[in-house]
Amino acid sequence: MSSVDGIVNEEIARLREELNKAKQRMQQWKEKTQAGVSEMRNRIVELTNQLEECRAANKLLSQQVSNATVSVVTPFAACDLEKSADSFSSFATFRVEQWLDDALTALCDTQLGKYNLLIEIANATSQELEKHKRRTAQTLRLQRKTTDALENEIANLREQVSVLQGDLAERSCAVKSRDQALEVLQGRLEEMEAAKVSYEAAQTALVSKLNAEQINVFEERLEEDRESMRREFAAREALIFDKHREEMEQLASRYEHDMAELRREIEEKPLGVVEIENGLALWPSNTARHPEDCDDVAYGELMSDLEALQEELRVSREENRKLTQEISALRTGPLSSGSLTALNSGSGTPESRVHPQKLTEAISRITELEEDVARLSEELYIARKRAVASVHQSSTVKNPKPSLVFEGQLAAYLRCTIVRLLCSAGEPAVAKNVFPVLNALLQFEKEDIEEVYRKNPDWIKRRF
């Protein structure tokens, strides 16, 4: 910014110097023109005086000639009167007249030459004066134009200087604000360094030698944390136990109801054997030869899926039971200061992350296990329904495709599922768990399933 100011100042100084030089040249031209005009005026006055002198001399000479003529003519006229026939008088008169004519002619020629010379000098002087006037006017116009141009340039430079001064002020304010911010940050840095030094000193003093008061305060704080954690664990545990007990009761009642329905259908199955044997004639030859094998294979697959789901449910329940025992142990057992420090700091080994010792980790793990239990319960129920559907399929040989006829337990379960879906109020977890059940009952098309998964990308895709 200083370099720009220097350049602008140098340019202004140069323009001012040129303006002063132009003013000096204009003053010199004015002085020269004034001197020329004064000289021409003096010359005109001098020539005018000479003209007056010549006129006076001419007048005087004219008077002298007239007087001489009168003085000469008068005596000769008297003699004429006396001697009119005298030849000498006539000759003298002729000579005097001839002399007078010659003198007057020479005098007139001389005066005319002087007058012509004076007129030429006056014309030349007038022309020179006009020439100097024109030059002076032209010089004045040029000087005026130059002055106007220099004034405009000076005005532009002043505007530029004003703009640059404004920019300089803004940048100065920005620099000042930055310096202030740097000072504030420097102060904060110094405070942080001082706090760090004091903290390190306190840590060193605490590690080297802890006094009894600090130990008591630390133990009281740990005891408060332990009590708050126990209360939170107890509340969460009671909530989980209540929810788990309700779900287990619902699953048990549903399981008993399904088993009763399945037993009833199995007991009613021999009644439809005659109808099955009558309908075997409508099947193809290979199907008629091995209908029991096809039903056995399908039923075996369904039973294997059912067993796998039961095993997964058992594992989840076992893990939930272990986690509940760990929560109970954490609730009833004493907590050491080291474990509380690890809980508060969030550090731990991978084993501690597998078996969570922190409240938030335990809660999240319990939530995951609850979701897994709900999912496995739904899948188990679906597998049982598929087993029931396979029994219905084996009993209705005439229609190889499973009919979507909802009667009894299926209709009740479908109504319950749809009610849960409608009452979920947009909760994705309920819809995610209900979707496989609806797919098993209603047998959605592949395009519909892909559309649902596309609308819900966070759902886990399953094979149906």
Automatic annotation (TrEMBL):
Family matches, as Pfam families = GRIP
- What are the Polar residues biased-composition ranges? 334-350
Is this entry keyworded Coiled coil?
A: yes
GRIP domain sequence ranges: 411-450
Query: InterPro entries, alphabetically?
Result: GRIP_dom
Alphabetized, the UniProt keywords read:
Coiled coil
List the Gene3D superfamilies hit by this protein, alphabetically. 1.20.5.1700
**Region (Disordered): which ranges?**
334-357
* Residue ranges of coiled coil: 5-64, 140-202, 299-326, 359-386
Q: What name does UniProt use for this protein?
A: Uncharacterized protein TCIL3000_4_260
- Organism annotation: Trypanosoma congolense (strain IL3000)
